[in-house]
């Protein structure tokens, strides 16, 4: 895993060239919910998502299963321990992915992913309190599928919503 392969340039010329990953947390009445999300930079589509133990490895494997041949794809994340674990590093190697991490105390190093969570915070998380982790997880997935993937216009896809394009 190398530092700063992305260098604040969140652009890709093809699918599966650059993915971003992050693990936000949010409290519920049953404790904190952690969700690992992996996003393709070109399409802005969430390609992997998990919420249970080993979530970063499972999210990565889910993204690879969805996208197929991803060899050489850079996967950039902040310095979270889940994305520095031996299991995650082995999964990167197994799928021939290239790891990249943001620098310490550099808030812009994963800004493209943080913008997704900012929208999620405003549109879902801050709207009410959540009794269970499962309730919140369902609402997050629904919001991503309904709003982010189907309705939000993607500038990299000539302002088409993902449902309007053939990109996966």
Describe what is shown at a glance.
It contains four helices and eight strands.
Kindly describe this structure.
α1 (55-67) packs parallel to α2 (86-94). This protein has helices spanning 55-67, 86-94, 111-123, 133-151, and strands spanning 2-3, 18-22, 25-28, 31-34, 36-40, 46-50, 74-77, 98-101. It has four helices and eight strands, in the order ββββββαβαβαα. 32% of the residues lie in helices and 20% in strands. A six-stranded mixed sheet has the order 1-8-7-2-5-6, with helices on both faces. A two-stranded antiparallel sheet has the order 3-4. It is globular and about 40 Å long. β7 (74-77), α2 and β8 form a beta-alpha-beta unit. It is of the alpha/beta class. The chain has a single domain (2-6, 17-155), classed as Ribonuclease H-like superfamily/Ribonuclease H (Nucleotidyltransferase, domain 5, 2-Layer Sandwich), CATH 3.30.420.
* Superfamily (CATH H level) name: Ribonuclease H-like superfamily/Ribonuclease H
Fraction of residues in β-strands:
15-25%
**Discrete helix count:** 4
Give a count of the beta strands, DSSP E runs of length 2 or more: 8
What is the rounded Rg? 15 Å
* Overall tally of domains: 1
Query: What is the succession of H and E elements?
Result: EEEEEEHEHEHH
Q: Give the biggest sheet.
A: 6 strands, mixed
Given the C-alpha coordinates, what overall shape results? Answer: globular
The chain-level mean pLDDT equals: 78
Oligomeric state of the chains?
single chain
Structural class assignment: alpha/beta
CATH first level: which class?
Alpha Beta
Low-confidence stretches: 156-168
> How far apart are the first and last residues' alpha carbons, in Å?
26 Å
Strand order of the largest sheet: 1-8-7-2-5-6
What is the share of helical residues?
Answer: 25-40%
The CATH architecture classification is 2-Layer Sandwich
């Amino acid at each position: 895993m190398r530092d700063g392969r992305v260098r604040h340039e969140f652009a890709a010329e093809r699918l599966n060239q650059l993915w971003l990953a992050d693990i936000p947390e949010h409290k519920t009445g049953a404790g904190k919910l952690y969700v690992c999300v992996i996003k393709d930079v070109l399409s802005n589509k969430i390609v992997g998502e998990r919420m249970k133990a080993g979530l970063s490895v499972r999210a990565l494997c889910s993204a690879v299963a969805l996208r197929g041949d991803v060899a050489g794809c850079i996967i950039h994340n902040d310095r979270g321990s889940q994305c520095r674990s031996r299991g995650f590093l082995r999964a990167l190697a197994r799928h021939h992915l290239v790891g990249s991490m943001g620098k310490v105390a550099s808030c812009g190093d994963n800004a493209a992913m943080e913008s997704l969570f900012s929208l999620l915070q405003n549109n879902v998380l801050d709207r009410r309190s959540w009794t269970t982790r499962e309730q919140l997880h369902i609402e997050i997935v629904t919001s991503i599928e309904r709003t982010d993937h189907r309705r939000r216009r993607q500038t990299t896809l000539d302002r088409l919503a993902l449902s309007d394009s053939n990109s996966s």
